[in-house]
Specification:
Structural class of chain B: alpha/beta
Number of helices of chain A: 14
Strand order of the largest sheet of chain A: 1-2
CATH topology of the largest domain in chain B: Rossmann fold
Number of strands of chain A: 2
Number of strands of chain B: 14
Helix content of chain A: 55-70%
Order of helices and strands of chain B: HEHEHEHEEHEHEHEHEHEHEEEE
Helix content of chain B: 40-55%
Oligomer: heterodimer
CATH superfamily of the largest domain in chain B: Response regulator
Structural class of chain A: mainly alpha
Shape of chain B: elongated
CATH architecture of chain A: Orthogonal Bundle
Distance between the termini of chain A: 12 Å
Strand order of the largest sheet of chain B: 2-1-3-4-5-13-12-11
Strand content of chain B: 15-25%
Shape of chain A: globular
Largest sheet of chain B: 8 strands, mixed
CATH topology of chain A: ABC transporter involved in vitamin B12 uptake, BtuC
Number of domains of chain A: 1
CATH class of the largest domain in chain B: Alpha Beta
Radius of gyration of chain B: 22 Å
Largest interface: A-B, 48 and 49 residues
């Protein structure tokens, strides 16, 4: 997390055998996913049907985007807890700028088509402000974003007066509820963004530089990476992606409740870390983070199908995540951090 | 990707603007509550703590409080808010009693952890009225809440009759750590077992979260496409996700259509009434936010004046029952369907 770290032996541009190792680390959760698929098919015959698996992907699409944003920030060696609050606040503010006062809006009544761009803009602004405090003010990312998590959620509560927003423009709900070519649009969007991120971090200089910065910021600076600028951009992108997660979630649920997104950050960290992304920066891949999301989604789905009693569900859920961590540790063969 | 000082300035400006906008709305809020407190003054000062700021039901309740205080002539202190945190509630209660409250109205969401606070208030001779929840231990002057067991039973009877006593229903439960969620779930389950044993009930622990409700309902409908009924414990959080899932499955149809899924909700907020009018859901149980506010303050005032009450029927269609640690006024909770959804007496039709 600190910018002055000097230890981590991570490379800006791995070659030869290192690439092999990186690939392997991506796939440590694959055995877990296989076990879950087999277990699930025993739990209920409906589990392996395309309909159910599509549902799992759709249900996890918003969380997947938060995990994507968090993974980018973690790889760059920083931290962002405020993403979960952006998931609720950005859509709420975007929508309130376009809906009439009677429905809970500000009364500006801008054209409905602007709601999504405004929402993404708000997310980007939160990210930019985080980046400003962390990179320019040199504050600790953990504390800054912890405070921002409270501030951003508080802003939503204050502006909406704690009310849920129900009357939303149709265009705002579209992305989260439409179907393209037989699959929910949300799945296509998430798939496309993950592909872009995997390619960018794998093959482009700016993307590769995230690993350099996360591994050793001073070394990265010494070889000419504009560390401040890149990390700041990552925070802005993270904010925008979290806002988009909010749009997808809103479309799926048909309304914005006052606590949308609250508590997600723990799931996002769990998914990123079991997927092999290091909390210390510089390690892990976007593909790995995606497998983490899939594990969490499959576990939730199996628990629901099985009808695990409510009072035991959290215990079972937490335990399965621990077991997944252990399996990925054994499969990966290297100490986790 | 140049982010220069100009962009920084713009970010700060935007944040400052939003913050100041937020601040101004808050100050008008307390400003509105203030005159209500000064209006009438009989008995003693009444302190009130709101349990949370992020729920539709409680926000309606907190809007009714200053209004009812004026009507009843209660000397209300500026309200505090404990944000669903029992530690904050304890601190707020101490502050209120320090500021000279003679009676305290609260809605402890954690009904166990409030016991020692109630004991210390009792030793200071400050009577406590609780709203919506019943403390497990510690003296209370009066508990004002709807009969949550009756909610569960009424929902069960409604669905049981509509389904003709057989089929599959889903219960979207609230948090099991709350007495209201538990009461509703237990009464619903017990009634189904007793009166409609051929109906299969799927219990979904949603923790009052819309996102969990949507995922669980969607998964369950995939597993059992012949589900014909849904009972939602809280309209505020479950309504929009449920309608969205049913829409996506193309299951919103008139009651005569065999595809129709019967949905009964709980709370009675305006959006549920709107959904009943549109035919998206069939019924709701109205949890009277206005009566909660009115009778909480009514009993607070009575406590300040030193009045006492006995168990038995009251003059407002409810019954007072004896608890080990005090009394409870169980307010009626009407069933709202398409027939009576436009009744102006329902609180959901009065909020704007």
């Amino acid at each position: 997390m600190t910018t002055t770290k000097t230890s981590s032996p991570v490379s800006a541009a791995p070659r030869g055998r290192r690439i092999q190792f990186g690939r392997f680390r991506d796939l440590t959760l694959v055995p877990v996913i296989v076990v879950l698929l087999i277990a699930g098919s025993f739990v209920d015959p409906i589990f392996l049907t395309p309909g159910n698996l599509t549902n799992v992907l759709q249900q996890q699409s918003a969380l997947a985007l938060v995990v994507l944003a968090e993974a980018l920030i973690l790889i760059a060696g920083k931290f962002d807890l405020s993403l979960e609050s952006t998931v609720g606040m950005a859509p709420a503010v975007g929508v309130m700028l376009v809906i009439p006062v009677a429905a809970g809006g500000f009364g500006l009544e801008l054209p409905g088509i602007l709601a999504i761009p405004l929402c993404l803009l708000v997310g980007g602004l939160v990210g930019a402000f985080n980046g400003f405090l962390i990179m320019r003010f040199q504050l600790s990312a953990f504390i800054v974003t912890l405070a921002m998590m409270i501030v951003v959620h508080g802003l939503q509560l204050g502006l909406t007066q704690g009310k849920s927003l129900f009357e939303l423009p149709e265009s705002f709900l579209y992305l989260g509820s439409a179907t393209w070519l037989g699959l929910p649009a949300a799945i296509w969007i998430v798939g496309a963004l993950f592909t872009v991120a995997i390619v960018a971090l794998g093959y482009f200089r700016v993307g590769r530089s995230l690993y350099a910065i996360g591994g050793n910021a001073d070394a990265a600076r010494a070889v000419g990476v504009r560390v401040e600028r890149v990390v700041w951009a990552v925070f802005v992108i993270g904010g925008i992606v979290a806002a988009l997660a909010g749009v997808l979630e809103t479309g799926r649920l048909g309304g914005i409740s006052a606590n949308q997104g609250v508590g997600w950050i723990f799931m996002a960290f769990a998914a990123a870390v079991i997927g092999g992304v290091s909390m210390d920066g510089g390690k892990g891949t976007i593909l790995g983070a995606l497998t983490g999301v899939l594990v969490i989604g499959l576990v939730e789905n199996i628990l629901t199908l099985k009808g695990v009693p409510g009072e035991w569900k959290q215990l079972v859920y937490g335990s399965i995540i621990l077991v997944a961590l252990m399996i990925s540790r054994l499969a990966g063969g290297k100490a986790q951090d | 990707m140049k982010i220069g000082p100009a962009a920084t300035g713009a970010t700060l400006l935007a944040l400052a603007l939003t913050l100041s906008a937020c601040g101004s709305s808050e100050s008008t809020g307390t400003g509105a509550a203030q005159p209500a407190g000064e209006a009438g003054a009989t008995g003693g000062k009444v302190g009130i703590d709101f349990p949370r700021a992020d729920s539709d039901f409680w926000n309606s309740f907190s809007k009714y409080v200053p209004q009812m205080a004026t009507e009843l002539g209660v000397d209300l202190m500026p309200p505090t808010n404990s944000q669903n945190d029992v530690a904050k509630l304890v601190a707020n209660t101490q502050a209120l009693s320090g500021q000279g409250a003679k009676v305290i109205v609260m809605a402890p969401q954690d009904t166990g952890a409030i016991a020692s606070t109630l004991q210390s208030l009792e030793s200071k001779n400050i009577p406590v009225v609780t709203v919506d929840t019943r403390p497990d231990k510690g003296k209370v002057y009066m508990v004002v809440r709807a009969d949550n067991k009756a909610y569960g039973t009424k929902a069960c009877e409604f669905l049981g009759e509509k389904l003709g006593g057989k089929g599959k229903v889903v219960q979207l439960m609230g948090a099991l750590s709350s007495i209201n969620g538990r009461d509703r779930a237990e009464a619903f389950g017990a009634c189904m077992k007793e009166k409609f044993p051929q109906i299969t009930v799927f219990n979904e622990p949603t923790e009052w979260e819309g996102t969990k409700a949507a995922s669980m309902l969607q998964t369950r409908l995939e597993q059992h496409p012949d589900i014909k009924g849904v009972y939602m414990h809280a309209g505020g959080v479950h309504l929009a996700p449920t309608i969205q899932v049913l829409k996506a499955k193309n299951l919103i149809a008139p009651p005569e259509d065999p595809k129709h899924v019967f949905v009964i909700s709980n709370d009675g907020i305006p959006q549920e009434f709107e959904a009943i009018r549109k035919g998206e859901i069939d019924a709701t149980l109205s949890q009277p936010a206005d009566l909660y506010a009115k009778y909480a303050l009514f009993y607070a005032k009575a406590a300040a004046e030193g009045k006492t009450f006995q168990p038995g029927p009251t003059d407002h269609d409810s019954t007072i029952i004896q608890l080990p640690n005090g009394l409870e006024d169980q307010l009626p909770a009407p069933l709202v369907t398409k027939e009576n959804v436009d009744d102006q007496a329902l609180w959901g039709n009065q909020v704007k």
